[in-house]
Specification:
Elements lengths: L7 E3 L4 H7 L8 H9 L13 E4 L5 H8 L7 E4 H5 L11 E3 L4 H7 L8 H4 L16 H14 L13 E3 L2 H11 L2 E4 L9 E4 L6 H14 L2 E5 L2 E13 L2 E12 L5 E6 L8 H23 L3 H4 L2 E11 L5 E10 L4 H8 L9 E7 L5 H11 L3 E3 L2 E4 L1 E3 L9 E6 L1
Parallel strand pairs: 1-2, 1-4, 2-3
Antiparallel strand pairs: 5-8, 6-7, 6-8, 9-10, 9-12, 10-11, 11-14, 12-13, 14-18, 15-16, 17-18
Helix pairs in contact: 7-10
């Protein structure tokens, strides 16, 4: 019997911080390490049954049984310790598929590289190069946005005077504050709404100044946007392969007022989306996908990267109440929650919509939360698909702090 060579998956959502730091031995802080540990099995929703997911603990039978109720055949698992202990698994591998690449991810996966396919060894992601670092900065997305606006000057695109700026000094911050009134300041290398500082009140508190100048000190510059009247967040998912870019799908995510990632809507926009916003979103998405594809394809991304990536777009109202779009607010050069949500939509019964969320509450474990939610929203299946109710996507044990779930 011939089996396909497996792909090896790794959940490392802190990859942007690892890229910013640049050291092969970089480690996330304790809380983020716990997140990676608790959510380590998430890539199994991308994986084929022959593939393997790297984990620190093999998940328990009860959890794997729960996946079977939705017709999910779980891939195999590899213990992280076995890779780092000096006797890595010796089977043949097709590709290595971490959530995102970074020097630290390369160091961890290095022992598996000799077993990879010849084709993967030719891929730009097989080794890390210092120039790759810039791809992961929000400044790269800004370059794509400017190029996109120059090539395709659509009237619905964000106006030039509202485009993201790069700041390196207190004076530059103050000029933008005068110009825009309210700001959203971001660390160039950060993800899921971490490393964000909204500025809605003046004068700026000394503690906040410390944070703003700290971003510049840590990462060399800060990314500053006007604080816009946001209506909808969408992410357009693409795949880069052998210099070409293909469209994968569109995901809709929600973030709180501070820009922190909350979750994804599955099978449709949130019910409270106003009809004009829905219509504008559908109209604009038909227009921008191809220009985005062309612009990114002509950039350095296709030379330096292979794999999935998501382009965050923002629909907002300008000061006259007109709907506008920033077609390229950020580019997440990695697997991402939006891509995952497209895979999770397949688990939901046709005609139903739901949400996918990441759970964290320092006082209540994921197990306690899951027990309560299952009582409140019992799972109803039809043809092995979720018709309604709560479904835990990751394992809940007595010490699990982070979790992922679907609620339909």
């Amino acid at each position: 019997m011939h089996t396909a060579k497996p792909n090896i998956y790794l959940f490392n959502p802190t990859c942007e911080y690892a890229v910013a730091n640049g050291h092969y031995s970089w480690q996330p802080n304790k809380l983020l390490q716990k997140m990676e540990l608790d959510l380590a099995t998430l890539p199994l929703f991308f994986a084929q049954p022959d593939d393997k997911v790297i984990v620190e603990n093999i998940p328990g039978d009860a959890y794997l049984e729960s996946l079977k109720s939705l017709d999910i055949s779980s891939p195999g698992f590899i213990l992280k310790q076995s890779i780092t202990s000096g006797n890595p698994p010796s089977f043949q591998i097709d590709k290595l598929c971490p959530w995102g690449w970074s020097p630290a991810a390369h160091k961890l996966l290095d022992p598996l590289k000799p077993s990879c396919s010849e084709e993967f060894k030719k891929s730009p992601v097989f080794n890390w190069k210092p120039e790759y670092r810039n791809l992961y900065s929000k400044k790269f997305a800004l370059g794509i946005l400017k190029e996109l606006k120059a090539q395709f000057p659509y009237e619905h695109f964000i106006a030039d005077n509202l485009i993201t700026q790069v700041c390196t000094t207190k004076d530059e911050y103050e000029i933008l504050l005068k110009q825009w009134g309210k700001l959203m300041v971001k660390a160039p290398w950060s993800s899921s709404g971490r490393g964000l500082q909204p500025i809605t009140k003046t004068p700026i508190h000394p503690k906040v100044w410390e944070k703003l100048l700290g971003i510049v000190k840590d990462q060399g510059y800060a990314i500053v946007e006007p604080f816009l009247n946001k209506q909808l967040d969408l992410a357009i998912q693409f795949k880069a392969e052998q210099g070409k870019i293909s469209f994968v799908g569109i995901s809709n995510f929600s973030a709180d007022k501070k820009g922190q990632y909350l979750g994804n809507n599955l099978n449709g926009l949130p019910e409270n989306t106003s009809p004009d916003v829905k219509e504008f979103a559908e109209f604009m998405l038909q227009i921008i996908i191809e220009p985005l594809q062309k612009t990114v394809e002509a950039s350095d991304l296709t030379k330096m990267y292979e794999g999935f990536f998501g382009v965050d777009t923002l629909i907002f109202r300008n000061e006259y109440g007109n709907l506008k779009i920033n077609p390229c607010l950020e580019i997440n050069v990695r697997q991402n929650m939006g891509l995952l949500s497209l895979h999770l939509e397949k688990l939901i019964h046709q005609g139903e919509n739901g949400i996918f969320q990441i759970y964290y509450n320092s006082g209540i474990t994921f197990l306690q939360f899951k027990t309560e939610m299952e009582k409140k929203y019992p799972l109803v299946l039809s043809d092995n698909k979720i018709k309604s109710g709560f479904f835990a996507l990751t394992e809940a044990k007595h010490d699990t702090q982070f979790g992922a779930y679907i609620l339909v």
